[in-house]
């Protein structure tokens, strides 16, 4: 199989979609011939990247069997290429925001709804990263039969590193003696629930429980979810939690973020329901499990596809602060349980979410389509 893979956002840009596209392309390379065209310079580069990529792909497609685009932003390119190469097959990975962005207010959202959603319908198959994403796609008129759910995955060797509490102290810049570190990894956007956690959960926890939130800071001028970093900072100041919480935006992947992921006492994903936004898939939840950590997340949207309650983490109803507090206290009071459960979660992630297995699923679904006459 010869695959042309196009990504509008790729490492070193930070984010779940970026990592997903990178790991998927690397996994596919083990089983197929893959050419990657990727934007590694950020959203400001898109006005140049998109037309140049279309022209390059228009000629390159003669040498490839299929084209796979990394998300719905690129659906119009896929649909246009399909018009010029009707004998080829075209696919798209679809993340939660690829659908929900059509519901947002503003000119860009209206254009997206008018152009990108119809373009997705014209492609041969859509690979949805979560079952909730399929449900949302059906609401905008995409046929359920046109979609297939394939979860995101992990590369264990790239996530686990040897580290110590001293290493974590250097990253955080504070003395963590006697502290229990609760880590949240992901972009600072409203539906991730960081502000909600700071205001409703953290004040009810023991004083030695320290909350760390790290991840990408969304540009104020970008389309999509709004930047929630200043709101989270404000919540910490208003509640006087400066000695119990720390926010780190755009943290370096290596080694800083990996040190925190591997050395924290537990991970949380306190997502909340926000109209017009959703969690397509809980990639950071399975990454935490890969690091051998206990994960506590909201029983919401794509997180339900990533976490099987009691197997690789625990689910709490979104917005239920009292249950979050109770469960965190239970988990952080029993070091032995966390160590045993972390080992169990790690094996579960290896068995179910390795990128080698996930990329094979992509290839199998692609081959089903290409085999049809």
In short:
The protein is of the alpha/beta class and about 375 residues long.
Commentary on this structure:
The chain contains 16 helices and twelve strands. It is α/β, with parallel strands linked by helices and about 375 residues long. The protein has two domains: about 1-155 and about 355-370, Glycogen Phosphorylase B (Rossmann fold); about 155-355, Rossmann fold. A six-stranded parallel beta sheet has the order 2-1-3-4-5-6, with helices on both faces. It has a six-stranded parallel beta sheet with strand order 9-8-7-10-11-12, with helices on both faces. β5 (about 125-130), α6 and β6 form a beta-alpha-beta unit.
Please identify the top-level CATH class of the largest domain.
Alpha Beta
| Count of individual domains | 2
Rg from C-alpha positions?
21 Å
Structural class: alpha/beta
Helical residues, percent: 40-55%
- Name the poorly predicted regions: none
Beta-strand segment tally: 12
The mean pLDDT is: 93
Shape: globular
